[in-house]
Fold this protein.
Amino acid sequence: MTPLEEIRHSCSHVLATALLRVFPDAKLDIGPPTDTGFYYDVDLDHKLTAEDLAKIEAEMKKVVEENQQFVRREVPREEAVEIIKKIGQERYKLGRLADIPEGEPISFYQNGEFVDLCAGTHVRYTKQLKAFKLLSIAGAYHRGNEKNKQLQRIYGTAFPTKDELQQYLERLEQAKLRDHRKLGRELKLFHIDDDVGQGLILWTPAGSIIRQELQTFISEELRKQGYSQVFTPHIGKLTLYKTSGHFPYYKESQFSPIFENESLAKAIGENCSCAEAFSRLEAVSEKMRQDINGRVGREVIPADRTKPDDQLLDGFLLKPMNCPHHIKIFASQPHSYRDLPVRLAEFGTVYRWEQSGELNGMTRVRGFTQDDAHLFCTEEQVGQEVLGCLSLVKIVLTTLGMHDYRVRVGLRDPDSNKYTGSAENWDKAEKACREAAKTLGVSFTEEPGEAAFYGPKIDFVVKDVIGREWQLGTVQVDYNLPTRFDLSYIGADNQPHRPVMIHRAPFGSMERFCGVLIEHFAGDFPVWLAPEQIRLVPISDKVADYGHNLLAQLRAAGLRASLDEHSDKLGAKVRRAELEKVPYTLVLGAKEAEAQSVSVRSRAKGDEGVIPFAQYLERVKQEVATRALPEKKKA
RNA sequence: GCCCAGAUAGCUCAGUUGGCAGAGCACGUCCUUGGUAAGGACGAGGUCGCCGGUUCAAAUCCGGUUCUGGGCUCCA
């Protein structure tokens, strides 16, 4: 353990010591250090409140004051059981003891009256714990399994010194100020309305400008890289998603199907129960089952999912993914190997039924638009195409100054059966991803179980202001959907061949990306993205005409500007523009009107003095055209 | 979905033991015509999330429900 982890881990023991003094009947589970502090999971009938937290923290301070020594003791397994029984903590600790493999040492740590099964290590004396604070109470399932009892988790944080603790707490406060939900409301970027629905984003005019600029930006890159733009509808027939495998395997994370009227009327006429109707919705014909299973070479649709044709119910699904629609565009025409790769791109809106407790501002929603594309290529082209996709993601992140991300190669979980396709194809796809990731020049981790159900992927993961990780850009290699949909192209040998698909989205979703972007810039967007780029501030209405004149010129140049004609004094108008995070404020008085000049105040530098308007116009046009990043603010 | 905590004006928040619904900012009108982060006066704005119960009387107490927040679980 690092020294900091020792401090935090020791704090969690002190927390447990104090907790048992206040609530002697608490049953302890585990209390490890974390990246930002520590916690202890406890089972306690009493519902802990904020007041309890204060009480426990006060007791912790006493424990520290008592300067208890942490003493390690290794014991044989039988004795460990005795100790746990003696301290009355058998409910969870016996299970934790059983987790320790045979042959590993079993150790207890004691400080004062408190004894805990623990591998260590710890600081030597409690007085070494100089700066800690309990932060919150949360529910957490025992062993992280939702089938187990939910325990109360007490979160806290600790640092070597009071100064560092104070700095951390201030950082937390700062983080709250740039939370995209708060800024989104203040800067009027988006709205979520109860009557429209949870997790459904309404893009307001200001937010729509940011989204539109991002889409224009990526579209320019797509043209350079030989993509074709397509449009597809928001729904598709269930049959489509039965073929792709989305339905019913991921039924629980989709909106309910929309029944097709005649089909439903017929089922009702047969007095078909709800349960029966759903079973018919999920079922496939024997022919479809044989076709798909034959193509993929193993049983991906089990026999018990078939029903006679006349009993199949049909309907539509709000699309959970864009791939099936794009596949159908590809399949609508014959392709020669000379046509490949075919790259179909769409800002495609998809809908997923996220559990209510998981929704979060713009970053976890139920309807979102992916900057999606599907590449159909030969097996030989896979490596190069994946590289092209990765470079696109890097262009996006670099242009926006987002350098703090990690790369994750998501592989299949060898113990799970949720994946479709042959092991052989999976091996090939995983190899392609791994090799592409190596060329990125950034470190990456390989994580089993993080793959999509149809193939492995390379994800770009960034942290939000409070440390939560969000997957943004993604590139996925897929040997499976082409098989399920029986896609082919004619090769040089005049024989049909199976193409390989690549799914990729450099932003991921417009919603999540904008949410993270708001926090990344703390609302201070680069000029090219700023909803309002220039605020004209006349000192008095005597120069209103000059203001209108400049406004017209700025707008004619394609810039987003407004004129503040309120009767406030200059200071108030400047303040308003600052709070609204407008990059440039142009102050106009009699002198400027006379000289056709403007007094420039930039968000980054403050008052920059008077320059000719024509000169300013060139400067800002240049800044927009190059998509320049904002300069660092003056301190 | 689960645990805990919340919901009062557009925003941030006060509201005592159950007794006429409050402030600041924003907004509107008027006065003020000014030089780089708040000029002044007046005004408008609320079915206290929603439904039900207790009570002479509910923002306040009780039950339910919806939504939000912090976690947990999940995220093809």
